[in-house]
């Protein structure tokens, strides 16, 4: 247990004077070290307190990689049952194929032991094997005073029997532990050591005999430049760039920056190091398209983010019928150089990214463009394009996924009746999954529909499935983070939105999603700081000003909220939801006549106004009865937007009303009586 330089974690756990907070701080370091090992493709396969060392200066090292395997190697696919009873994952104990997710389970066992001083699933007793395969995840039971919130949830996510349902990575475990420690009572809060670097695994790797692979890497695709800057050519160049991004997203462990951030930068004279730093990546993809005597020529290049040096380049001259194939070819070449090699499974995933029919692909791109405009009219046009794409190719999984998401958004906005169109959306999502179960867009669309139907466990499972398929698929991470705030799982929500923001660091959608999460958690200053940074890049985006208004109103600064709402409406966001917030703010600053005038206009619009937003307007003018009646009507219609009322600060005046609490409880949500 004791060494010259310190002691193992086993010794730490046996020390009654070591606080739980200190134990969690050590485990956060261990999670960071394991994340580095996993980034190199190494699964430890024998995690236990005896193999984690705490030095005398508080540095944590992961030791004894004697049973470790390269994830995806032949040895990892079939193996003798080796490991330590009490800490093995179900798949490891059964001799099934294992990867880094097995370490996540073993880490969960250690975390459980650190909290309870006992092992889960019966520890080393004779019941262990049976419990491991059959028993549900054990609860922490009676928690001693001072235990930080979020531990049970993290344990549940680490100790899932199905590897696909577990926490996606040790990096996520590390983030969640740090969030738990950050939100612990101030008296017991610890500053985490900064040495979460390669030094954490060097001592262990010194005994490692296999050559280390370079980290999987990170990449951002900058929009290709059209030499002929006509609108059609510019859009084509952007479509090609987006196609490369979507192909790269098929690789589950490659960091790919979201379009909304990487498309902030363009032009032939990029300051490559500055752009790479802003996006947090090692490499950039740039390119251009040229009309060469009626024949399209595409040039693509991979450059180092450190100095802009070219790492690879190629030219392509596709015809209209194989444009999508070129996008996949570019993605394959990029992936080979960023990740050093492609596994057969990687190659299979990339091959599936090719679109089956040029005409269907063209219609899909038109639909996506209309979706990007994000108005009720454009969304209905988008749905039409996706339906036309499916008319050309009924088995086009991506078109079904996009159609499902479009139906969901139309139902939530009040344009279409929710229950009917959510049902059609679910059918489209299931068709997409039936065609391609590895499509993250399909699982994300289905998750959103499950969430809008208040099927919370199903929704979370589908979001996590999408993230497992593509850890860089930002929409799934953003939506999961918002969902977790509604479910009252604050620490997990923060950890998820932090990860999403790393993948979309300067994008508008990333800023709005982050602001929504922080608003729901009443972290108003953090939400406003995020929106301010985004506005410095794009001050004409109406959604930003809508959210500046919402957050300022949450803080109680309704005068600032009114200014922001008026700017948003001037820029084009005159949706019923924004106008309902505006009515509330007008009434709160004493402009009741103006508020009632706008309210009458909203009432005349009927069913196009989501009832939860109408309740916000009624609450502003102190009409509690009509506000409650609107919420009850929304519940009767099972309107999707109703899910957000437990975290809506504009409805704080209603939150102690038994009728409000009944609506919340009937949706299966916790009441959040926040100040």
Secondary-structure blueprint:
Layout: E1 2-3, E2 6-8, H1 9-13, H2 20-39, E3 42-43, E4 52-55, E5 60-62, E6 69-70, H3 74-77, H4 90-93, H5 100-116, H6 128-134, H7 151-158, H8 170-182, H9 199-205, E7 218-221, E8 225-226, H10 231-248, E9 255-256, H11 259-262, H12 272-279, E10 283-292, E11 295-304, E12 310-316, H13 323-339, H14 344-352, H15 358-373, H16 376-392, H17 397-413, H18 418-435, H19 440-452, H20 456-469, H21 474-486, H22 490-503, H23 508-520, H24 524-537, H25 542-555, H26 558-571, H27 576-588, H28 592-604, H29 611-620, H30 624-636, H31 658-666
Parallel strand pairs: 7-9, 7-10, 8-10
Antiparallel strand pairs: 1-2, 2-4, 3-6, 4-5, 10-11, 11-12
Helix pairs in contact: 2-5, 2-8, 5-7, 8-22, 10-13, 15-16, 15-17, 16-17, 17-18, 17-19, 18-19, 19-20, 19-21, 20-21, 21-22, 21-23, 22-23, 23-24, 23-25, 24-25, 25-26, 25-27, 26-27, 27-28, 27-29, 29-30
| Large-scale geometry | globular
Quaternary organization = single chain
The class by helix and strand makeup works out as: alpha/beta
Based on DSSP secondary structure assignment, what is the total number of beta strands?
12
Profile the largest sheet: 6 strands, mixed
Low confidence ranges: 185-216
Helix proportion: 55-70%
Number of alpha- plus pi-helical segments: 31
Strand fraction: 5-15%
Radius of gyration: 26 Å
